Amino acid sequence: MKCSPGDTGLFSFSSGQTQGNSVTQTEGQVTLSEKASLTINCTYSTTGSPTLFWYVQYPGEGLQLLLRAFSDKKESNKGFEATLDSKSKSFHLEKGSVQASDSAVYYCAMNDTVTGTAGGAERKL
């Protein structure tokens, strides 16, 4: 898939909840141009000390773990960064310059499951 400057990408968001714990992405839809910066906001609610995950699913492929954090620190992989902040209960995914190769579905998940506790974001170029 190729994307030329000025082409746009569309992100859509969803949320989920299970067993009193939840992971939420609050945005509706966001349109981005190639090389624009990306932030996908993920907040969570739990009474414990969770591990947070960002998973990515590229077209025609299975889920892949992108980032994981279990304490307040910044994690990075493939140009993406996410900081787990237990005070604000957030684990936002960021990238300074998105490319066509970033086209995928992104899931924020808590503990060791995606099913039922994931919020997702989809980018199409």
UniProtKB/TrEMBL annotation:
- Here the segments flagged for biased composition (Polar residues) are 11-28
Question: Which superkingdom heads the taxonomic lineage of this protein's source?
Answer: Eukaryota
- Please give the GO cellular component terms listed in this UniProt entry: T cell receptor complex
Pfam families linked to this entry: V-set
Keyword set, alphabetical order = Adaptive immunity, Immunity, Immunoglobulin domain, Receptor, Signal, T cell receptor
Map out region (Disordered) in residue numbers: 1-28
* Domain Ig-like, residue spans: 5-125
Q: Among the record's GO biological process terms, what is one?
A: adaptive immune response
Extract the PANTHER family matched here.
Answer: T CELL RECEPTOR ALPHA VARIABLE 6-4-RELATED (PTHR19367:SF43), T-CELL RECEPTOR ALPHA CHAIN V REGION (PTHR19367)
Protein name, as recorded: Ig-like domain-containing protein
Organism (species): Ailuropoda melanoleuca (Giant panda)
Upper classification of the source organism reads: Eukaryota, Metazoa, Chordata, Craniata, Vertebrata
